[in-house]
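Q: What residues go here?
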């Protein structure tokens, strides 16, 4: 990434910070953390029919943008947003040097796993693999994982409905996020290997942290305290 991309994007003529949040389940799970950190979005943020993607908050110095989970990392890496909440799966896939992920928020917990049809899993031996074809939305992460074992992984990029790939003969195996494992089971698949444990992280743009250390550093500490508080409450 060139120098222009590394966190030097203009902030629309103000010092307002932009916090990027992912759509979906993590957005819901992050609500208590945002409140504990002192950020309450405007009412329209909670309107499922609202088409706006940028929202004001109870903090005049912070706006929220709501984007796809994979795009959170891109907005923060390129400096369009200075702060974000992002799954560690996305961070591993992109491996942006421009992102600093100082806080594990303890939400969005799941695992990234390899799965295959249950009948194949009954006799399959992953230690004997030398070349495999896999459907996944994590091609870079998947290739790195198997390359470390000397296995060549041919990755077919899919953005959803991963479980259909083995059923329809696209490939025998998938790499995807697994929570309870129910979706795999209902589609005749079995989890055979865990690649990584996944959770959501509070992330910041490194250039923003360098140029505004007190401001960005304060938000890191607020989200760290908020995460600790939620963990204590859960205990």
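A:
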């Amino acid at each position: 990434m060139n120098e222009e991309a590394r966190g030097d994007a203009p902030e629309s003529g103000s010092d307002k910070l932009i916090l990027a949040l992912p759509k979906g389940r993590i957005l819901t799970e992050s609500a208590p953390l945002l409140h504990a950190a002192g950020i309450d979005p405007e009412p329209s943020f909670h309107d499922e029919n609202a088409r706006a993607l940028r929202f004001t908050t109870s903090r005049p110095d912070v706006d929220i943008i709501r984007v796809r989970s994979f795009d959170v990392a891109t907005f923060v890496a390129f400096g369009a947003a200075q702060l974000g909440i992002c799954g560690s799966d996305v961070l591993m896939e992109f491996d942006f040097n421009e992102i600093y992920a100082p806080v594990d928020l303890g939400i969005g917990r799941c695992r990234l796993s390899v799965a295959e049809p249950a009948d194949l899993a009954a006799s399959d031996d992953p230690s004997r693999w030398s070349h495999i074809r896999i459907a996944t939305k994590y091609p870079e992460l998947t290739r790195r994982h198997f390359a470390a074992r000397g296995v060549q992984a041919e990755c077919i990029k899919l953005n959803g409905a991963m479980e259909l790939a083995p059923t329809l003969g696209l490939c025998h195996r998938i790499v995807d996020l697994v929570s309870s494992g129910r979706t795999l089971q209902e589609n005749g698949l079995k989890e055979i290997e865990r690649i990584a444990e996944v959770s959501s992280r509070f992330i910041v743009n490194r250039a923003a942290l360098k140029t505004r250390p007190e401001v960005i550093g304060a938000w890191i500490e607020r989200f760290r305290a908020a995460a600790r508080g939620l963990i204590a409450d859960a205990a």
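A: Context that may help when evaluating the design: The two ends are 42 Å apart (CA to CA). Residues 105 and 227 are 5 Å apart (CA to CA).
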